[in-house]
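Exercise: predict the structure of this protein bound to coenzyme A.
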Amino acid sequence: MVGTKIAGIGCYVPDRIVTNSELSQFMDTTDEWIKERTGIEERRYAVKHEQTTTTMGTAAARIAIERAGINKEDIDFIIFATLSPDYYFPGCGVLLQRELGITKTEIGALDIRNQCSGFVYGLSIADQFIKTGMYKNILLVGAEMHSMGLDFSDDGRAVTVIFGDGAGAVVLQPTDKDGQGILTTHLHADGTHAEELAMISPGSHGGHYLGKEKFGFPDANKLGSIFVTQKMLDDNLLAPNMTGQLVFKTAVVKFPQVIKEALDKVGYTTQDIDVFVPHQANLRISQFVQKILGLPDSKVINNIQKYGNTTAASIPIALCEAWEDGKVKEGDLVCLAAFGSGFTWGSALIRW
Ligand code: COA
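Solution:
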């Protein structure tokens, strides 16, 4: 049976570095607090009005296409994962097609949400399409421009300090080389805690899920509109909501579980992993998971210190940098795993 390989990988981060100390000029936070709780030292912010989630995704995609040794016109399917799209609709997939200058219409463009696990979900989708023979060159992009949607007042500090902008992309192709490529992918979801890591307003929910008991919004029905309302502005509701400790506690359980599930499926153990690329949620989460798995530092890729959490872009950026640094070599067993909003989580094992 044909397999799916990563034929090319690229990443892009904006030039502007925003340090923890710079953030402490806008909000009540400190370099020490951020470093101690998250490991983050700095993040990148894109240039407002000049760059977008799609333009960053395009920059990463160009590199991936070139490294795959193909032409942009060879791409027959696009998968775009983001939680910070250029438009509410249409999605970034068609915008990426346009930015790349792909003029043919014999191409599909799929937009997926899935937030922090968007890249792993996208990889699994692409793998199925390649294995069935439907597509030959799938471009998978994860990109985020968080800086446009964060709350820079004290109210937003717990969320804002964590997130950064950037993009990563891969080109996926069929391979008939025995044992090469994506060995297995595992996807999970549990909507019980949907609002615990969410952008609640604006939206079409009409307050439906937001009773006083759970969220303390006495006039929740005023919060639900697909358009921005004065009430949302007055109440400073146009920012992500995150119950940090619940996210942390759930993540450190789900990461090892879903990695073990993947290893069991193909008959490997943690000792067989050569390179582990966790979603860059929080350095403490990654270190916790590393300890449970018993992996040495040399096998674990962490770059959250430089970029913060870039959600759907975090795994492809980290994988891209690791590959560029020569840390991912042919024949290596690469393990990817993610957890985030939804909650959704997943893992993938790839023989490089
Ligand atoms: N700077 C300074 N103080 C801050 C702060 C900031 N940026 N953000 C929150 N605080 C304060 C809180 O107000 C609280 O103050 P109080 O004790 O006076 O009430 C104190 O720090 C502790 O807050 P708490 O939320 O208990 O901290 P924590 O140890 O749980 O760390 C997170 C907060 C967000 C760093 C942590 O919960 C986390 O990383 N969770 C996972 C988040 C994540 O990974 N999200 C992405 C998922 S993909």
